[in-house]
């Protein structure tokens, strides 16, 4: 698979072992989570989905072990409306970014549960794709380059500050997408 993930990150994921891959997907998911949680939080019928997203994102950070129910969680996520095929494609701003957040979590859960590097790469690729779209939509190039930088940091062996940086990046992404929805 051709991926947007930088070659040095690809190599580190292939050689770094399961714990490196679990840290990588936890960080990618943390950065994308506010897009799902923040954009769906005001919908009463989605409360359980938001709770599931929060819990799953948080539990991915226990990188010393895989989640025993990761495959079941990915299956539950597959039933979310965002990940259901739609005939006309996804066109709305909220639906687009919640789709990508869901996709990142799905691949993150699969990578966590199986240790499959291809799932980790798909997780990173989905995050980079979403940030590339966000850059195009807000007229800049800071989001994708920041995602690349943080992906590199997550496989560098020095994860100090990674959670804080991921939370901050996630908030910035949410604010940028939210600013796009204010005119709807």
Structure write-up:
The termini are far apart. The model has no long low-confidence stretch (mean pLDDT 94). It contains eight helices and no strands. It is globular, with a radius of gyration of 15 Å. By secondary structure, the protein is mainly alpha-helical. The protein has a single domain, classed as YP_001051499.1 fold like (Up-down Bundle). The longest helix is centred in the first third of the chain and has 23 residues, at 18-40. Helices cover 72% and strands 0% of the residues.
Please render the helix and strand layout as text.
Layout: H1 7-16, H2 18-40, H3 47-60, H4 70-78, H5 93-114, H6 117-138, H7 142-154, H8 162-181
Unreliable stretches, pLDDT < 50, 5 or more residues?
none
What's the CATH C level?
Mainly Alpha
CATH topology: YP_001051499.1 fold like
Task: Indicate the radius of gyration in whole angstroms.
Answer: 15 Å
* Oligomeric state of shown chains: single chain
Mean pLDDT: 94
Q: What portion of residues is helical?
A: over 70%
- CATH superfamily label: YP_001051499.1 domain like
Main beta sheet strand tally, sense and closure: none
- Ends distance: 36 Å
Note the run of SSEs as H and E: HHHHHHHH
**Helix and strand composition category:** mainly alpha
> Total helix count?
8
Overall shape: it is: globular
CATH architecture: Up-down Bundle
Number of DSSP E strands: 0
């Amino acid at each position: 698979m051709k991926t947007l993930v930088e070659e040095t990150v690809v190599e580190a994921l292939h050689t770094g072992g399961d714990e490196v891959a679990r840290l990588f997907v936890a960080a990618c998911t943390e950065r994308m989570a506010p897009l799902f949680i923040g954009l769906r939080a005001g919908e009463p019928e989605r409360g359980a989905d938001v709770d599931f997203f929060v819990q799953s994102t948080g539990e991915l950070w226990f990188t010393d072990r895989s989640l025993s129910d990761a495959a079941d969680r990915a299956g539950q996520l597959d039933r979310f409306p965002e990940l259901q095929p739609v005939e006309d494609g996804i066109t709305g701003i909220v639906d687009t970014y919640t789709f990508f957040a869901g996709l990142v979590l799905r691949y993150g859960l699969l990578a966590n549960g199986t240790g499959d590097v291809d799932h980790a790469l798909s997780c990173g690729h989905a995050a980079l794709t979403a940030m590339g779209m966000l850059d195009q939509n807000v007229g800049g190039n800071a989001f994708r380059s920041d995602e690349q930088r943080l992906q590199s940091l997550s496989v560098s062996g020095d994860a100090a500050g990674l959670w804080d940086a991921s939370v901050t990046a996630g908030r910035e992404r949410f604010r940028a997408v939210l600013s796009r929805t204010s005119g709807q």
